Predict the 3D structure of the following.
Amino acid sequence: MDDKTIPIKALPPEVRAKLEKKKKNWEVDQLGRALFEQTGECVFIIDLDLRYLKANQQALNLLGYDEREISGMSVSNVMSMGEELDHEIVPGDHANIYERILKKKDGTLIPVEISTSIVSDENGLPVYIQSIVRDISERKATEKLLKRNGQILSVISEATARLFRSPNIESGISEVLESLGNALELFCCVIFDIENFSGAPQIMIRYSWVGYDAGGFNAKTAITPFIEKMITTPEAVLSEVKAGGGGDISEYSFLAIPVQGLLGSRGFLGMFDRRNSLSWLLADFDAVQTATNLIGAALQRIQYEETIRLNEFRNRIIVESFPDLLIRIDADGVILDYNSSPNHPLFIHRDMITGRKLVETWPEEIVARILGDKNKDTFQSPYWLEGFQLPFSSSIYESRLHPINPREALIIIRDISDMVQLNEMKTDFINRASHELRTPLTAVILMADLIQQGGTPEELDEYWRIMRNELNRQKKLIDSLLMAGRLESGMMKLESVPLDLLPVLKESVEAVSPIANKKGVA
């Protein structure tokens, strides 16, 4: 472009009239036909009335016209007339570069970048407009794709922060699906499982988002035609076009991407849009896969947290069902955990006692006995303490210390009051039973000595009678012990009946009267 070229702008009427006169005598072929035809750019020659005079072959190919059709055609038939064309001419400005939408002969719209300049004659008067056009469709598609992926990645970044910042991740999944759907211009996003345990595959929609303009769309029904393919090739991305789907959707494109992190099931992120499946570009897949991995990580965290909650709940129920008090303590004597049933005599809510030292709750000498031979800084071996009492409780306890690690131990405190009482009852019972069994046996031995010493027939008959009575009495005592065993095992029931004590007393007096008579005791 020479220094006589000035930019396109509106011209004064007197100048314009001179240009019209000059134009009729101007021969375009003399102004560089070789350069005009051989350049790789699309070049248009436009008169000052904004009508095409000529175009090179590249320009004709771009618009789909031949040279005869385009000659004399108004620029407005091809180019959108925007605000950029309304600028005034600025002398000395050699070219204007701007973007426009051109309409091809078949009606297709194509984005272009246009560089225009006014060509002047030897006297410096404008003669015609030279327009160089470049097809920027690919650049625009790339810019649109970058913008789209930027939106997707922005959604993913925001979702990452929102999901993992929230105390309840599960409630945020649907919001992430909505954000992803809006960024990708979808009308429905779902997370679903395919359960294939019962023989007939079942679709389970776990989370879903449906746009307001897709009322009545049934994602489960829309996914059903693809079940078999997803089961046979679960790692493959599926994208197809199907008709129907319910509601206001007559045709849809479906994309399913496996979600890593759904334990024990076939999990997928399903997306629906109204575009053809071919419009799913590789960059779309990459961005969506990133979002899918994020959602999978969030879902897996939900599962882990739910498993931990269930285990903690289960363990808490088990611990609270124990009749014992469980104290987890560190080597400094600080209570790390305190668990017991509310009915336990030593129950204190864990929130009130956790973090305090055990010696602040129980007497120091009792704590020292419970810890046993613990070294100053570590727990070495289990220790069992039997039979201690606390000043604020009438119960009797035993403690068992089990080291968890050198700096931490579990102390089990058990109320053994009933056991101690039972042992006392057993001891008392044995003493009483021994006494009761020994009394008739002593009488029998005495009667045997008296019989051996001899006596009158009447005395010997009495000795024999007393001996039989005492032996029968001992037999009854033994039967009573056996009966007590049956009563304790539930095999018998005891019924209380009135008892005449006179025969019992008479029998007891008769058992000792021979010995008393021999010794002169009245």
About this structure: The two ends are 160 Å apart (CA to CA). Residues 1-9, 24-32, 83-94 have pLDDT under 50 and may be disordered.
